[in-house]
Amino acid sequence: MSAATGAVLAEKTVTADPAGYRALVEIAERHGTLRAWAMEGSGGYGAGLALHLAQRDELVVELDRPKRPARKAGAKSDPIDAVRAARDALARTHLAKPRAGAERAALQLLLTARRAAVDAAVDGQSQLHALVVTAPEQVRARFRGLSTRAMITYALRLRAAHYAGDVHVFTAMSTLKAIARRIHALEEEAAEHEKAIRKIVSAWRPDLLALTGVGPIVAATVLAAWSHAGRCRNDAAFAMLAGTAPIPASSGKTVRYRLNRSGDRQLNRAIYTVVLTRLRLDPATRAYAERRRSEGRTDREIRRCLGRYVTRQLYRQLENPPAVNS
Asked: 42, 49, 136, 267 — which has fewest CB within 10 A?
């Protein structure tokens, strides 16, 4: 697309492999050397193309998926989406860079795998509770009054073979033990992923782990979203990415703000974890919360303010890492 007129210069559909990427570059080279690539999903299906272009020092602009209207006016096809992406990039005053870096990509993979293991383990715990409730009283009585952790440990020690004569009891005990084994395996998998995450974070940005409330998972989530220096132009842009920038909701003489529910929700969750940890353990944060309560602020408003402060602190730390003494 021409930057001067907005006219479409050429269209081509290619395969998502090195040969297809080279074909796209060849087409672009026929229309001049000064160019930029507008891309949706540079961290997903467009990751291969984004990496190929980065290796050639091409300028890549990252775009959010547009909110398309309902059908008729919201026509959808790959050529239409490509034209929309190009025109969206031309209309922007600030161009977002795609996420990049081997460490960031590795952390994203580990975070995704760990999150899946943790979610599956939680589902298994729910299944364990549900099956205990419907199990025969002979089995149910053994779990009565136990915590979830104690239930898993006890289920792992069940010996169903001793009750082979009672099909109901035997099946219930065998099933509970199988679920407990699955939960245990998933928890071990999640722990291994966390060890790998801690190793990468400690080697890449150990300074983050020194911040109050920031552990390896929070640090990895923040690094995966931030990616590299200069991707977010300032701490306000990073706050919008994190969903911690307050949204004005004032009316008349009433000045108020509401929570921002957009942005990267995993990053938002990580920052919220830091806020809760500091409210529990950090004396300075607790003193701030008490002072704001005395001014009439609600706990929700206090957490919102703290989330914005934590976001600003993390951004400044990320953009200005401490010097390493040689």
From this structure: 136
What is the bridge-based pairing of β-strands 247-248 and 257-258? antiparallel
R_g (Cα) of the chain, nearest Å = 26
Query: CA nearest 219: which of 267, 187, 285?
Result: 267
CA distance 208 to 315: 11
Across the chain, which has 326 residues, the per-10-residue mean pLDDT values are 75 84 84 77 74 80 62 62 73 67 90 97 96 93 94 93 86 95 97 97 94 96 90 89 81 66 89 96 96 92 93 94 67
d(CA 192, CA 210): 22
Secondary structure (DSSP) of 36-74 = -EEEE-TTTTTHHHHHHHHHTT--EEEEPPP-PPSTTTT
Return the pLDDT at 303: 93
* Token pair recorded at residue 218: 């929070």
The pLDDT score that the predictor gives to residue 326 is 47
For helices 216-226 and 102-134, angle between their N-to-C axes, nearest 10 degrees: 130
- CA 29, CA 10: separation in Å to the nearest integer? 12
d(CA 12, CA 17): 14
The DSSP letter of residue 251 is B
- What's 278's DSSP letter? H
What 3-state class would DSSP assign to 257? strand
Residue 263, judged by CB atoms within 10 A of its CB (0-12, 13-18, 19+), counts as middle
Which residue, among 235, 212, 205, 133, has the nearest Cα to 176 in the 3D structure? 133
pLDDT at 124: 97
Beta pairing partners, 48: none
- 75-to-13, 195, 224 alpha-carbon distances in Å: 18, 46, 33
35's torsion region: left (phi>0), alpha (psi -120 to 50) or beta? beta
Per-residue model confidence (pLDDT) at position 263 = 83
Separation in Å, CA 10 to CA 13, 18, 19, 23, 30:
10, 20, 18, 12, 10
Mapped onto helix, strand or coil, the DSSP state of residue 254 is strand
